[in-house]
Design a protein that fits this description.
- The structure holds 2 protein chains of 2 kinds.
- By secondary structure, chain A is mostly helical.
- Chain A has helices at 5-24, 39-50, 52-70, 76-95, 103-125, 134-161, 169-176.
- By secondary structure, chain B is α+β, with helices and mostly antiparallel strands.
- In chain B, 35% of the residues lie in helices and 27% in strands.
- Chain B has helices at 4-30, 36-114; strands at 123-132, 140-143, 156-159, 162-170, 175-179, 187-192, 197-202, 210-216, 226-229, 233-234, 237-238, 246-254, 261-268, 277-283.
- In chain B, the strands form 3 sheets. Chain B has a 6-stranded antiparallel β-barrel. A 6-stranded antiparallel beta barrel of chain B has the order 6-7-8-13-12-9.
- The longest helix of chain B has 79 residues, at 36-114.
- The chains are: A mainly alpha, B alpha+beta.
- Chain A binds chain B through residues 20-21, 23-25, 28-33, 52-53, 56-57, 59-60, 63-64, 67-69, 71, 73-76, 78-79, 82-83, 86, 93, 125, and chain B through 2, 9-10, 13-14, 17-18, 20-29, 37, 40-42, 44-45, 48, 51-53, 55-56, 58-59, 62-63, 66-67, 69-70, 73-74.
């Protein structure tokens, strides 16, 4: 991603909207006994298109916004989301995924990493030893719902960031698979 | 391929963000509630409040929709669980009610045997009813005890409330009981305490109504009095039923001008259409009354 005021504003807009929608909308929804969480999806969505540094910055900023808005321990969400954003960005840089369904596993892993790491940090910092096993069920459900929501969230992130992206994996894929032309006899598969 | 500079920059950015998070975390824990971060947080929450309120209102339809979907899915699952639980509870209820009914019948049989007036010293074998005759002409039941349990033909059978019938066929493990409502049945009986004797016969098709026949017109019979087996003995002839087993209660008396005898209607104590347990009296015991038992007032000899 090119670092311009516009690109920062776009990433900030994504972080802000994701936080507000999460707190006012998705946080209050109960689906199969759990709530959807689009925060890690937004961070991973930006990171997968913009790279690891942008992903880490997006994670830090979104975490800071979340901690400020929720009133939880400052730094916890930033720390975890920085790792999530950086990890997703590095995955894109190393593997260069271009598959159309790439967002689903990335979203699932990002959500799982977020809920697991957040639970671990919270457990280490504040919570006593009495933790219900139901928390694991909740983490699993949140991950599954995250995987289901990954495609639309990633698509929205891409749409917002598109003008600032240096490389768009989807554009590259589209160029790579251009339509085959007919051969000299006018039949497909008879190209010379 | 990323250059060393890019790699260093990337690592530095990551380290910076992590360090900033850890510093924030440490400072947040270290400071008081009036510290910088706490104050910042309060300010941010105040700033966020109207945005969150507006967003909350705007997103309410979507929230309600998802909530409705979630509630519907959960309700379906809950419905299935409740149906399974209902089925289980119904089965348990059925078993419990059956057990209660069985226990009540067995208790009533025991109480009947211990009641005042019942022939003392009798021995009995409890049995479960395993089959019933489907017609009104042949009122018989089959029980799950037979010769192997000490049962013999013509032994009297009692049920909850009173006399039920007698054994008419005995095999190794089962027996057939001919009920007192069977067309072929006849039992010598006595109205207590008046002492009028007669023969109890069924009215086919009306198992809840027996007839006490051959009661002389001169004997005063009142409704509501109890009818028991008379257990008559006349010479070498002896009733199959020991004296004192309750049969029923007088429900009506027909006084026909031209008849020589009264016809007394009896409502049997035992509900013979729905008995599940019976007791077969394997020994007669002793009659409770001290007065000499007599044959029915007329034509009773040879009858059970």
């Amino acid at each position: 991603m090119t670092f311009t005021p516009g690109s920062f504003a776009r990433a900030g807009l994504i972080a802000f909207v994701a936080t507000v929608v999460q707190l006012s909308g998705f946080g209050a929804m109960r689906l199969f006994g759990s709530s959807p969480d689009i925060i890690p999806l937004a961070v991973a969505g930006v990171a997968i298109y913009a790279g690891s540094v942008s992903g880490a910055a997006m994670g830090f900023g979104t975490g800071l916004l979340l901690d400020l808005a929720v009133g939880s321990t400052m730094g916890v969400s930033s720390l975890v989301l920085t790792a999530v954003g950086y990890g997703a960005g590095r995955y894109r840089e190393v593997r260069d995924p271009a598959h159309g369904l790439m967002s689903i596993p990335v979203g699932a892993v990002a959500t799982f990493g977020w809920v697991t790491a957040f639970a671990a940090v919270s457990f280490m910092l504040e919570v006593g030893p009495s933790v219900s096993p139901l928390v694991f069920r909740d983490m699993l459900l949140t991950t599954l719902i995250g995987a289901a929501l990954a495609m639309p969230v990633f698509a929205l992130c891409r749409r917002v960031l598109r003008s600032s992206l240096v490389v768009d994996p989807y554009e590259r894929r589209r160029r790579r698979s251009s339509p085959r032309e007919a051969g000299p006899l006018g039949l497909r598969g008879m190209e010379v | 391929m990323p250059t060393d500079k890019q790699i260093r920059r990337r690592r530095a950015a990551l380290a910076t963000f992590i360090a900033a998070s850890v510093v924030m975390l440490t400072a947040y824990f270290g400071e008081s509630s009036e510290g910088v971060f706490h104050t910042l947080q309060r300010g941010a929450q105040e700033a966020f409040a109207p945005i969150e309120t507006g967003a909350g209102r705007a997103l309410k339809p979507a929230r309600d929709l998802v909530g409705w979907i979630g509630d519907t899915v959960e309700a379906k699952g809950e419905n299935e669980d409740l149906r399974a639980e209902l089925k289980d509870l119904r089965e348990r209820l059925g078993r419990s009610e059956t057990a209660i009914r069985d226990a009540e019948q067995l208790r009533d049989i025991v109480n009947l045997r211990q009641a005042e007036g019942f022939p003392q010293g009798t021995r009995s074998v409890a049995a479960r009813v395993i089959a019933r005759s489907p017609t009104v002409w042949y009122s018989t039941i089959k029980i799950d005890k037979g010769a192997g349990d000490g049962l013999r033909e013509d032994q009297p059978v009692i049920a909850e409330g009173g006399l039920a019938g007698k054994l008419t066929r005995v095999t190794g493990g089962t027996s057939e009981v001919t009920l007192i409502t069977d067309a072929s049945s006849a039992v010598s009986a006595q109205i207590m305490p008046a002492g009028a004797n007669g023969i109890v016969k069924p009215e086919v098709g009306r198992p809840s109504d027996l007839l006490l026949d051959f009661v002389q017109r001169g004997r005063r019979v009142t409704e509501g009095t109890t009818v028991v087996t008379s257990g008559f003995r006349s010479g070498r002839v002896e009733s199959l039923f020991p004296r004192g087993i309750p049969i029923g209660r007088v429900s009506r008396v027909d006084l026909d001008e031209v008849e020589l005898y009264q016809r007394v209607h009896i409502k049997p104590f035992a509900d013979l259409r729905s008995i599940d347990f019976v007791a077969v009296l394997t020994s007669r015991g002793q009659a409770p009354a001290t007065e000499t038992s007599q044959a029915p007032d007329s034509a009773g000899a040879g009858l059970p």
